[in-house]
Each structure stands twice: as structure tokens, then as C-alpha cells.
């Protein structure tokens, strides 16, 4: 059989299908080995990277001929806006821990942008820092490699052999074990053949570390306290903390440990978050947090100063239905949340049951437009399942509210067991129409937490009380469930909420006047709404009329679909002006939507990255308690901006405190000159010197990393931890070949997690050894290289 790129991947598809029906580990590994034996010697190669592409996290552009020959290379085709791409990052980090470059495995990110904003190298560099991506990344800004290799979606992993030959391809999200199994067998197979090389890659260039209390803040929220003063919550996503400050910027609490992600409930110092995003106050003492990378919703009690998880368990869910509560209900990257308090009609506690059958949708109806004869993209939604629900008994209602007799039951053979199983628990609230004449005592407050579930492209709800939702579905208190969105990524509006589709919803805001929930639907570049009375999902501005078109983006002021946004991440309702303000993130603008006219216009920002009156990928915003200001999380500017809605002036909220929150890790560097003979040895005695009162954070990894000038320098270990001992001895062998006498830099860096007086922070530092090789130098040089805190 003649092999080419396509036939290899087709053969792998056949292998993958065979593996799907095999549970025996030895059998699976045998099948993978046989597959490798078939293709290992085939003269098929992906070729080399185009010259001139920009690289990150490495000193020089990499090539298959110079750097990657003898390596199993994992090409990760990604774009940094994509939630599915973010979901596989933990798998790649685990792979890097399992197999080092010396083991013969290299991960290379190929950034193939979806949005124009993502093609910019500065924005890519910021995203790599935000998401802690340390492996080499190439900017495939024109999609040349994407097209050459026939990649069709994000994320896609293409695994190459030691001669650049294609081996495996994983499309979309995948199970971690699936990748590990393939790489393990490949390392064993090519290692036994002697095809793998332990050589190092060029060390990464030094990167600047942001100094300041905020690092990539994602969202903001505000509330008025009992004393009339306003407080602001900031999701300090890059440092995995939540900051509570006054409107003047005085920091009251730093919740979590800066720079240390985790998933721990407890007091403010013990608590750990992982890239928190959405924030919502239910009162001046209770704050809810969308703990995105922990796939959880957390409750922050400001009075008791403690944090509790109310939904999620730290694991990403594949569940698109929900209905469980607490840790039993897994979530998938909740990106924003919105607390909703609405008036609903109270019903009696012991009503009589009757059968209510909802009418089907009209034939061919999508909710967005009618299907044409040639439009078969989605069949019309099926009629809802008949649901038994009990109405209030007439004697308990005022005469004006007496319901008509229930409709006759359909002539169906229903047993008593069927009837009993169909009865719903007694409903408490039912939505009401504002035009109906009700008295105040007939209504109760319904409190729910709306969740933009970006990972499953849906809108979920957390119910604080028992609730009858949309008059037909009963949910008990503590339930977390999907209420809108099919789970398919699309821009499909529909009168039936679960037949609608969203595309990575990332921002939420509630309007009590119309009982609508507004959504910043980032991947469709649109703002959309859900009517909470009826469930109807509608377009507001932006996006495309074609549901599957997720590339209708731009920067255009206009009406409805004619207006264009680019990956909006935040939205907030301003009651005084009856307008929505939108964080149009990739256009670096704040935009304003007038709902009556459905107009969208630029409010602030000029479309370019910048500071002060300009923005850099703003991720979230909220209206101040008195309606006079907007607070904006200006994510890539690492600050919160305050916009006066009277004057449109912009100022930065300067955070300050007697107990200033720990700054983001500051890289300190010391240069030490050394001279050593060719073929000589450098022995470094490294360790940590801790002053009195400071200790290492218990359970946190205390890492060190060594970077050598090139492959001619040798050492046994390039990285490790101080976990077992706070001292290490490192031995480095100098090259045998004569050098020009120019210094060669060896870098020894550390990342330490330290605690003092109950406050913890991460500190990074580095030592640089400027080494000159000379024939008249000592054969062995010993040097003490201690990290002093």
C-alpha cells in the first residue's frame, strides 16, 4: 500500500475505531504497536515550518531538521478564544510532566487564529501568560500550516514521529488517557528502535512579569452595603483570587492565595480558586463566584469570611442536562453568573392534579425563521412531553382568578402507575403577566442564579428555592440544571429554549423590567436574550441570521444583524438609560445598545489596544449601585477602569491598602560570572534561604528549572523540586569543542510558594551564570547558588 498524509490518517481512524471496542490494555497497546510498525518506515513527512513565522517561549525558530529530529512532536492547533482548546490544556500539562524533552517528546502550539484580533503577536503573548502556556508556540497567522495539513477545527492534535511523519490525529476534546496511551506506546516503540534523541531545545527567552495587584482581571461586580457605601468585587483571574475593595480602591479582602490555583473551601486564607471569572452579589454579605477552571460555583460569605462550593466538584462535566445538586452536579467552565430576583405568583400548597399538554411548534418552525423546502439543517422541534402539573383548586382563589375546568384527557391507556409517576410535586411559583390585576400578597420572591456555561454552550440555572419553571418543570432547592441551549455550538434562536443553541456564552445581565436575561455570546459575536416568562431565545445585535455561521464578526455600528461585534465577553443592563453596555473584547471597545431601536454603537475605545481611555480585551463590566458609573475589567491592561456615564471620562481604579494584596510574581535576576575549562564541570549548590517568619507553603510544589546554552552542554536533570530537601546539587558538563571565548548563559530559575502571617504568595526568581570556556581555566568550578527570599 502506498502511504501519503491522508492514508496515514485514514489508517489511524481505523485504528481508533478498533480501539473503541477493546477494553484490554495489552490488546490495545498491541494494536497501536502494529499500526506504528506499518507506518514507521513510510517516506511521509509534514515538511518544515515556514521561515519567518513568529515564535514564542523559545529563543529561536524551531525546525524539524535542526531541533525536532529524533522527537515525537505533538502539534496542538488552537486559538486562544476557544473554550475547547482551553479544556485540553490540563491534559497537555500532564503530558509534559510525564514525558520531558529529554524523553523525546515535544509539544508545540500552532496558533491558528479565528478572529482578526487573535492574529496579533502581542495578544497571543498575553494569552500565553494568561493561560500559563510554557511550551513553544508558533503564530500561524495566515493559516498556512492549518491549510497544508488539512486541519478543520479547534482543537486538533497532530502527533508526528521522529522523522516528521504523521502518526496520530485527535480532533476536538478527548480523554487524557487516550493521548497518554498513544504517546506511551510511541515512546517505547521508537525508543527501542533508537530513533529518539535526548537533546535539549534552545532555552526560552526571558519574559517580563507584570508587577501589580491585578493580573488579567476577568469580571467585576458591585453592591451597596448596609451603611450606604459601595464595594466592588474583582475576579483577579490571573492570580486565582477574588479581591473585595471599596469604590475608592481600598482593599478589604484578598480571597485565596495569589499565584496558587487550587480547589479548597474554607476561610479566606485557606480558600483556593482556579481562574475565577463571573461574580454576582445576592446581598451585601453574599457573593457568588464562577470558578471557571474548577468547573464550580462558589459562595463567598463576607460576614463569616468563608467560602463554600454550592455546585460542581472540580471536574469538567460532559453532562448537558443537569438536575442534580451540590458536588453531585458536574459543570463545564462556567464563565459568568447573574443573580436574579423576580416576583412570581404564589400558589396553594395542596392543589389537585390535572393533565396539561403543551401544543407543538408549527411545522417547519425554528423560532428564528421558517424552514424553506431546501433547508434541512434542523428538523422542527418535537412537541414537548406531556407533563402532569396541579393547578390551584378554585375554592382557594379569588373569584377573578378561578381557572377554567381542565381540558379533557386524551384517550390514552394510562395505568394508575403511569399517572402517579407523571404527577409533579406541588408547584410553588408560576410566572405572571404584568398586565394582570394581582394583589401584592399573591406574589413571592423567586431567587435564582443564571450561569453562562461556556464549556457546554448553554445557559443553566441554580435554584435557591423550590420552583416551577416556565409553569411546567419542577426543580427543588439546590438544583443546578440546563434551561436553554441544546449543547451544540451555534447561533440558533428558537421559541423552545432547549432547541436553541449558543456559542460559548460568556456574559450575563438581567433586566427586571422585561424579565429578560441578556447574553454575550462570544463565539457567535452577538448579544442575545432569553425571555424568562416564555423561554424564547432571540437575537439582539450582531452575529449572523444563519445559525451555523460563527464567523460573522467585525466592528460595525448598526441595527440588529447589521451591527458587528468581535468576541464580546461582557454585558450589563443600565436601567436609567434603558440600555445595554457591552464589553466588545476583541474590538477593545465598550459599546452601547438601545433596546427599543436595537441600535448598537461604539461608546468608548478606538478599536486598538491601549491604556487609560483605551482598552485591551476588556472581559467584564458592571453598573455602579447608583447607576452613575461603569466598572470595567480591562483584562490585558491588568486593571479596573471607572467610566463616568455623565461625562464619559475614564479613570483607573487604584487599589491600595495598608495590607496591600501580594503583587504578581516579580522576576529578580542575578548574573554570576564563571570560567571553566573545556570538558570541565560546573557544580552548583542551590537551595532556599528563608528569613524568620516565612515558610514554604505546605503541599505546594517548590520548583527549580535549569536552562543550558545549547545541546553541547550536558546535565542529568533540567528541572526538579525542593519538596524533599531545600538544597540541591547540580552538575553541568561543559562542551568539548573550542568556543570563541564569548560568554554562555546558564539560567537557574525557581518558583516558590511562601507563607507569612497567614498570607501566601508566589515568588519567582532567577540566577544567570555567564560562563566563559577557556583552556587555562579550572577543570571543576564549584559555586553556591542560593535563592534568598
From TrEMBL:
Residues 366-400 are annotated as: Disordered. SUPFAM superfamilies: NHL repeat, Thioredoxin-like. Residues 13-188 form the Thioredoxin domain. The keyword Repeat applies. Pfam families: NHL (PF01436), Thioredoxin_8 (PF13905). It comes from the Eukaryota. InterPro entries: 6-blade_b-propeller_TolB-like, NHL2_NHL_rpt_dom, NHL_repeat, Thioredoxin-like_fold, Thioredoxin-like_sf, Thioredoxin_domain. Residues 378-400 have a biased composition (Pro residues). PANTHER family: NHL REPEAT-CONTAINING PROTEIN 2. This is NHL repeat-containing protein 2.
Amino acid at each position: 500500500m502506498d502511504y501519503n498524509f491522508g492514508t496515514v490518517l485514514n489508517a489511524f481512524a481505523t485504528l481508533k475505531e478498533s480501539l473503541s471496542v477493546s477494553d484490554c490494555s495489552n490488546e490495545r497497546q498491541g494494536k497501536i504497536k502494529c499500526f506504528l510498525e506499518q507506518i514507521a518506515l513510510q517516506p511521509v513527512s509534514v515538511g518544515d515550518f515556514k521561515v519567518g513565522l513568529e515564535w514564542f517561549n523559545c529563543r529561536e525558530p524551531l525546525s524539524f531538521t535542526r531541533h525536532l529530529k529524533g522527537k515525537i512532536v505533538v502539534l496542538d492547533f488552537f486559538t486562544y478564544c476557544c473554550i475547547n482548546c482551553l479544556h485540553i490544556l490540563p491534559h497537555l500539562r500532564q503530558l509534559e510532566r510525564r514525558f520531558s524533552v529529554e524523553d523525546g517528546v515535544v509539544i508545540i502550539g500552532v496558533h491558528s487564529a479565528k478572529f482578526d484580533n487573535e492574529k496579533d503577536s502581542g495578544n497571543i503573548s498575553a494569552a500565553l501568560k494568561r493561560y500559563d502556556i510554557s511550551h513553544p508556540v508558533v503564530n500561524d497567522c495566515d493559516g498556512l500550516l492549518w491549510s497544508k495539513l488539512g486541519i478543520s477545527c479547534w482543537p486538533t492534535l497532530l502527533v508526528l514521529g521522529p522523522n516528521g511523519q504523521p502518526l496520530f490525529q485527535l480532533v476536538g476534546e478527548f480523554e487524557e488517557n487516550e493521548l497518554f496511551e498513544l504517546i506511551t506506546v510511541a515512546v517505547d516503540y521508537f525508543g527501542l528502535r533508537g530513533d529518539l534523541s535526548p537533546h535539549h531545545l534552545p532555552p526560552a527567552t526571558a519574559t517580563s512579569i507584570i508587577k501589580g495587584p491585578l493580573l488579567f482581571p476577568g469580571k467585576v461586580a458591585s453592591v451597596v452595603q448596609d451603611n450606604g457605601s459601595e464595594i466592588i468585587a474583582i475576579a483577579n483571574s490571573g492570580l486565582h483570587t477574588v479581591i473585595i475593595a471599596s469604590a475608592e480602591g481600598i482593599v478589604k479582602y484578598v480571597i485565596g492565595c495569589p499565584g496558587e490555583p487550587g480547589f479548597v473551601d474554607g476561610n479566606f486564607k485557606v480558600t483556593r480558586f482556579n481562574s475565577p471569572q463571573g461574580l454576582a452579589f445576592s446581598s451585601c454579605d453574599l457573593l457568588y463566584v464562577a470558578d471557571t477552571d474548577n468547573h464550580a460555583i462558589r459562595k463567598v460569605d463576607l460576614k463569616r469570611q468563608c467560602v463554600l462550593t454550592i455546585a460542581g466538584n472540580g471536574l469538567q462535566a460532559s453532562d448537558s442536562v443537569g438536575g442534580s445538586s451540590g458536588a453531585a452536579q458536574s459543570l463545564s467552565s462556567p464563565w459568568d453568573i447573574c443573580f436574579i430576583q423576580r416576583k412570581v405568583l404564589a400558589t396553594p400548597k395542596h392543589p389537585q392534579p390535572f393533565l396539561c399538554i403543551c401544543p407543538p411548534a408549527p411545522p417547519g418552525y425554528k423560532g428564528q425563521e421558517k424552514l424553506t423546502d431546501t433547508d434541512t439543517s434542523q428538523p422542527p422541534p418535537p412537541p414537548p412531553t406531556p407533563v402532569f402539573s396541579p393547578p390551584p383548586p378554585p375554592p382557594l382563589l379569588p373569584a377573578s382568578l378561578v381557572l377554567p375546568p381542565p381540558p379533557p384527557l386524551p384517550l390514552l391507556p394510562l395505568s394508575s402507575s403511569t399517572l402517579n409517576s407523571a404527577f409533579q410535586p406541588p408547584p410553588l411559583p408560576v410566572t405572571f403577566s404584568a398586565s394582570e390585576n394581582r394583589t401584592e400578597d399573591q406574589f413571592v420572591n423567586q431567587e435564582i442564579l443564571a450561569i453562562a456555561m461556556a464549556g457546554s454552550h448553554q445557559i443553566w440555572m441554580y435554584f435557591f428555592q423550590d420552583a416551577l419553571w416556565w409553569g411546567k418543570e419542577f426543580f427543588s432547592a439546590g438544583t443546578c440544571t440546563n434551561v436553554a441551549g441544546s449543547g451544540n455550538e451555534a447561533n440558533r434562536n428558537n421559541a423552545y429554549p432547549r432547541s436553541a443553541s449558543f456559542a460559548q456564552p460568556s456574559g450575563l445581565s438581567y433586566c427586571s423590567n422585561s424579565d429578560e436575561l441578556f447574553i454575550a455570546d462570544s463565539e457567535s459575536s452577538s448579544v442575545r436574550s432569553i425571555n424568562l416568562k416564555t423561554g424564547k431565545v432571540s437575537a439582539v445585535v450582531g452575529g449572523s441570521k444563519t445559525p451555523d455561521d460563527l464567523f460573522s464578526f467585525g466592528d460595525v455600528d448598526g441595527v440588529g444583524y447589521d451591527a458587528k461585534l468581535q468576541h464580546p465577553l461582557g454585558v450589563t443592563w443600565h436601567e436609567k438609560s434603558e440600555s445595554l453596555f457591552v464589553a466588545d473584547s476583541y474590538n477593545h471597545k465598550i459599546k452601547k445598545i438601545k433596546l427599543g431601536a436595537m441600535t448598537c454603537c461604539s461608546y468608548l475605545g478606538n478599536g486598538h489596544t491601549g491604556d487609560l481611555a483605551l482598552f485591551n480585551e476588556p472581559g467584564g463590566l458592571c453598573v455602579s449601585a447608583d447607576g452613575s458609573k461603569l466598572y470595567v475589567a480591562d483584562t490585558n491592561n491588568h486593571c479596573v477602569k471607572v467610566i463616568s456615564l455623565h461625562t464619559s471620562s475614564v479613570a483607573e481604579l487604584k487599589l491600595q491598602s495598608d495590607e496591600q494584596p501580594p503583587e504578581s510574581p516579580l522576576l529578580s535576576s542575578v548574573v554570576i560570572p564563571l570560567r571553566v575549562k573545556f570538558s570541565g564541570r560546573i557544580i552548583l549548590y542551590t537551595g532556599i534561604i528563608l528569613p524568620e517568619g516565612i515558610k514554604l507553603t505546605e503541599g505546594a510544589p517548590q520548583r527549580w528549572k535549569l536552562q543550558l546554552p545549547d545541546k553541547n552542554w550536558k546535565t542529568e536533570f533540567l528541572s526538579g523540586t525542593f519538596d524533599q530537601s531545600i538544597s540541591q546539587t547540580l552538575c553541568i558538563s561543559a562542551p568539548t569543542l573550542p568556543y570563541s571565548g564569548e560568554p554562555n548563559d546558564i539560567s537557574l530559575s525557581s518558583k516558590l510558594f511562601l507563607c507569612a502571617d497567614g498570607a501566601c504568595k508566589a515568588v519567582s526568581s532567577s540566577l544567570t551564570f555567564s560562563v566563559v570556556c577557556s583552556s587555562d581555566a579550572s577543570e571543576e568550578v564549584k559555586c553556591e547558588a542560593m535563592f534568598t527570599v
